[in-house]
Amino acid sequence: MSLGGNLRRLREKSSLTQKEVAQAIGVSERVYGFYESGRFPKDEIILSKLAWLFGITISELFDLDKESGVPPEFVILARKTDDLPKETREAIYHMIDQTIDSVLLLLDEEAKTRGKKP
Q1: How far is CA 2 from the centre of its chain?
Q2: What does each of the 118 residues of the chain score in pLDDT, given as a tens digit?
Q3: Alpha carbon 55 to chain centroid distance?
Q4: Domain count, the chain
């Protein structure tokens, strides 16, 4: 798949609009749209920002078969905390971890009630 196709796939997988990606990397929606359409020069700074946003390397932007395995939506959520104080980030991560544990416990209990594993 082309760079543009890969960008679109990553963006859609992350439930982001072109405008949201453009804002995250500091370009206009039109400029980002050119990247998805493949009609824009490959600017290394923009590519590095896109790779950072999606939690992959620049090489992986061109070849998603070698993707890092971390779902882009998780990377984007983590990126939202980058500018927060360390204590606040840790508190958020702790709350997320507790929420996941609680949901898994509920699913496990529900499965046992039905006689199945989650």
Answers
A1: 19
A2: 688 888 999 999 889 999 999 999 999 999 999 999 988 777 888 988 998 898 888 888 887 655 555 566 676 777 777 788 889 888 888 888 888 889 889 998 888 888 765 5
A3: 6
A4: 2
In the structure encoding, which two tokens stand for residue 76, read together? 């984007």
* Amino acid in position 43: D
Amino acid letter, 83: D
Regarding whether 54 and 1 lie in a shared domain, the answer is yes
- What predicted TM-score, i.e. pTM, was given to this entire model? 0.58
Question: CB under 8 Å to 51, separation ≥6 — which residues?
Answer: 57, 58, 60, 61
Verify that 10 and 37 share a domain, yes or no. yes
Rounded Cα gap, residues 3 and 74, in angstroms = 21
64 with 11: CB under 8 angstroms?
no
CA atoms within 13 A on the CB side of 61: 23
- Cβ partners under 8 Å of residue 67, min gap 6: 56, 60
